[in-house]
Amino acid sequence: MWYCVEFVTVITGLVIALASYFYMQSRRRPNLQQSMEQFKGQPRLPKFAVPKRYDIRLKPDLSACKFSGSVAIELNIVADTRFIVLNAAELSVDTTSVSFTHSSNSKVLRPSKVDVVEEDEILVLEFADTLLIGMGLLTIRFQGTLNDKMKGFYASTYNHNGEKKNMAVTQFEPADARRCFPCWDEPACKAMFKITLDVPSKLVALSNMPIIEEKVDGDLKTVSYQESPLMSTYLVAIVVGLFDYVEHLTSYGVKVRVYCQVGKVNQAKFALGVAVRTLELYKDYFEVPYSLPKLDMVAIPDFAFGAMENYGLVTFRETALLYDDQHSAATNKQRVVIVVAHELAHQWFGNLVTMEWWTHLWLNEGFATWVSYLAADNLFPEWKVWTQFLDDYTEGLRLDGLAESHPIEVEINHTREIDEIFDAISYKKGASVIRMLQSYLGAECFQRSLASYIKKFACSNAKTEDLWAALEEGSDEPVNKLMNSWTRQKGYPVITVEVKDQKLVFEQSQFLASGSHGDGQWIVPITLCCGSYDVCMNFLLESKTGTLDMKEFLSDKSNLASAWVKLNVNQTGFYRVKYDEDLAARLQHAIENKHLSATDRYGILDDSFALCMARQQSLNSLLTLMGAYREELEYTVLFNLINISYKVERIAADATPELLEYFKQFFISLFLHLEDKLGWEPRTGESHLDAMLRGEVLTALAVFGHDLTLKEAIRRFHAFLDDRNTPVLHPDIRKAAYVAVMREVSTSNRFGYESLLRVYRETDLSQEKTRVLSSLTSSPDPNIILEALNFLLSSEVRPQDAVLGLSVSREGRETAWTWLKDNWEHISKIWGSGYLITRFVNSIVSPFASFEKAEEIEEFFASRTKSKISRTLKQSIERVHINANWVQSVQNEEHLAKALKGLVLGKV
Ligand code: BES
Ligand code: ZN
User: Fold this and answer.
1) CATH of the domain at 592
2) Catalytic site residues (predicted)?
3) Which of 128, 321, 595, 716 is deepest in the core (most CB within 10 A)?
4) Which residues are catalytic?
5) For residues 603 and 610, is the Cβ–Cβ distance under 8 A?
6) 3-state secondary structure string, 154-214?
7) Helix or strand or coil: residue 135?
8) For residue 654, what are the domain limits?
9) Which residue's CA lies nearest to atom 3 of ligand 1?
10) Residue to mutate (ligand 1; options 169, 302, 308; most atoms within 8 A of CB)
11) Residues 6+ apart with CB under 8 A from 182
């Protein structure tokens, strides 16, 4: 018996030993069999090693446009592997410098193989033996080029005392930190960063954190920065150049600075004030203070985007940060506020709490967009920015009405696909669905839940469902279910509404700008008012149809047989509404009698325009509705009315050229009274919105060829040429004057064009340059357009600005397309690696309106498409089809000519 027990014990021991041996082998075997190949073509890095802390040293050579550097990365090896795989691109890695030291035994390992896979932007280090689980230190030395592509570590240029100089700047989002140093370049791989720079001693050198030590050694200095808290690689930043700055402390002790070109500090003061106030506001709103000791904001002369929210070191285009009292327009001022507020919102939403993967990019961008309006409204309530938010909302609706749209939460399988999702879906639809949810849950409940989300995920990463969970917990509403219907499928519904025996009958179907219906279905928060803003109600439409008995709901004040019914009150819902004829007529009446709010007036017009374009409503009825806005005074509503007029004019020119003059006269008649009201110069005490409106109205009158406006604009422009400080051409109306001047330019009358180039060359204010560039292609003469387009490609225009001149006049459409084809190779070379290339495609392709053209465009790009523009191209071609169909339906519309002529004569 004893033997038995002994035997059993021995056998059991043996079995256990063998089992654990085989278990260990089985755990090791697949990894020992790992090969380089399996890491290629993967969307994400393998997870064997987790970076904890980077010690980065960089030495940029500004005149040779090169840099050298080294990185020591503390890693945690969390699974058996012989490989370390991380990102690197366009770096020349010194393979002999690569080593890995286990913390446990201090043994220095050299990789048996170092493979740089440029195609996948990864660096694969292969070791002879399996690495030990636990911490270790990876060191790598490398060299790179300060490129001219405005991404990674790049060179930007500026003039100092007449000399052209280089500065070194980083732009890492979405995935270009790997172009500066080898790293785990994914948002979820948060680590601490300790940065040291070797730079010329005369220059300002900035990074995310404050400087802790600066050692000067002759012409060079070594600058070390405090270690950062946990953050993602795409938020690391460095700027080295010559700058001036202004500074101010927040009430809770954060040192805020705005850096600009030497001599421009006066232009930096406005943004500084805005930033300080915004940081204070966000501290209260998110219930967490700004988390770094300092915040620097820098104007960069060459910058691909509007701005970038690098943690503690936000970079901007000059136009989005600098404000000049004398030469900036009201619209420039507002842009500075919105951009600053947006990037500072990211310091919480994005930097402190970061999306887990690019699929959740919208959490960053949609949120920052929404919060920027909250801040701007707080700082400048008289600007009524929430009504202006509707321009973003509408852009979201326009893009999402395409079959080639994408869901807010979008699958990303390759870094190449990331750039294209920084679009109106992530930003504008994203912000709009947040606004919809906030208005459904109530502002206070929304803010509280948001603050608890920020606290819960601080210094880590979150997914969309984490945000919904926090809001669900704070509200007891089914947020997850409700919102999934908006973020996981593309598109949105159009709600048709009809009156049937004292009942309102609703039906939802997916709105498509092409006129067909998709099969999406949503949980729609319906709001409505009837006859008065005091008689409102709301409910969730969860199925395809719904009915509302109005008898109980209606008070004496309103009567369903005659009262107006407005759905989607104040346009907080991300959907369109199609009213039956009777309800539409009542609304038009309510607009004329000024019973509706500006946001509702905006929404009715925009829905009507979209339905008309989708051929669900006649152009005749759209024009009649537009006629109801003859006494409109509100900036935002007019801004949309003007833009809709531009679009209708373009379609009319293709569909019914014989009626074009009538269309123009009709539009002029809508806006002319505003010229009388607003005049050409600022009135004392006038509002910010009137100042912006003046510019829009005069531009529209110039575009539609109103003779007196053109003459007056040109007269004032001449005065301006004689004296750039003349009060007769205020910055608010300069763009209008430039457009007017260009409308008169032709091959035989080049004066206006040459003069504008002079203005461009002589100013050092970026906003002035921008105004000129965006007017330069407004001439109706194709030869001048071609010359202007070629100017955009010249060395006089920074690549960041060339895209500003691509909205060519209606008459220049064909010239622009030929120009794009002729220059495609060059354009791809300069802009092809970034997102700006999409602007070339979209701006030049989308205005066409024929099926033949769509085919020609498809053919041209068939052999040229790169994944960078594939979605944009499909969307642009879809727009051409939509336009083409619209043209056909307008051509077939009966009574259009008669109705239009009636409108022009005022016989509505
Ligand atoms: N994070 C973006 C900048 C960015 C855009 C990086 C695209 C990578 C790709 C930044 O926060 C941003 O959204 N900037 C906007 C300005 C904002 C006010 C809408 C921009 O650059 O247009
Ligand atoms: Zn952003």
Assistant:
1) 2.60.40.1910
2) 343
3) 321
4) 343
5) no
6) EEEEEEECCEEEEEEEEECCCCCHHHCCCECCCCCCCEEEEEEEEEECCCEEEECCCEEEE
7) strand
8) 637-744
9) 308
10) 308
11) 71, 73, 86, 87, 88, 91, 93, 123, 140, 142
Spans of the chain below 70 pLDDT: 1-33, 555-558, 865, 907-908
Tokens read off for 243: 């700058």
Q: Which residues are annotated as a binding site for Zn(2+)?
A: 342, 346, 365
Q: Are residues 610 and 650 in the same domain?
A: no
CB-CB contact of 322 with 299 (8 Å):
yes
The whole-number pLDDT of residue 829 equals 93
Question: Both 13 and 84 in a single domain?
Answer: no
Distance between CA atoms of residues 728 and 741, nearest Å: 15
- Does pTM top 0.90 for this prediction? yes
List pLDDT tens digits, range 427-445.
999 999 999 999 999 999 9
Locate the ligand 1 atom nearest the alpha carbon of residue 346 and give its number: 11
Kindly report, residue by residue over 569-583, the tens digit of the pLDDT.
999 999 999 999 999
342 lines ligand 1 (CB under 6 A): yes
Q: How many CB atoms lie within 10 A of CB 102?
A: 17
Amino acid at 558: S
Output the DSSP codes for 494-563. Answer: EEEEEEETTEEEEEEEEE-TTS-EE-----EEEEEEESSTTSEEEEEE-SSEEEEE-TTT--TT--TTTS
Nearest alpha carbon to residue 539 among 498, 562, 563, 506: 506
The DSSP code for 825 is H
- How far apart (Å, rounded) are the C-alpha atoms in residues 292 and 204? 20
Tokens of 706: 């109103």
Mutate which of 235, 316, 422 for ligand 1 pocket (most atoms within 8 A of beta carbon): 422
- Report the nearest-CA residue for atom 10 of ligand 1: 308
pLDDT of residue 417: 85
Length of the chain: 908
Kindly report the CATH number assigned to the domain that includes residue 359: 1.10.390.10
Q: Please report which ligand is nearest the Cα atom of 368.
A: 2
Give the DSSP letter string of 234-300: GG--EEEE--EEEEEE-TT--EEEEEESTT-GGGGHHHHHHHHHHHHHHHHHHSS--SSSEEEEEEE
In ligand 1, which atom is closest to the CA atom of 174?
Answer: 8
44 and 23 within one domain: no
Residue 131 resides in a domain: yes
- Residue 52: how many other CB atoms lie within 10 Å: 15
- Looking at residue 104, its pLDDT comes to 93
Q: Which of 449, 467, 487 is the last residue of a domain?
A: 487
* 502: Cβ contacts below 8 Å, ≥ 6 apart: 549, 550, 551, 560
**422 and 444 belong to one structural domain:** yes
| Statement to judge: residues 52 and 200 lie in one domain | yes
| Number of C-beta neighbours around residue 44 at 10 A | 12
Contact by Cβ (8 Å): 58, 140: no
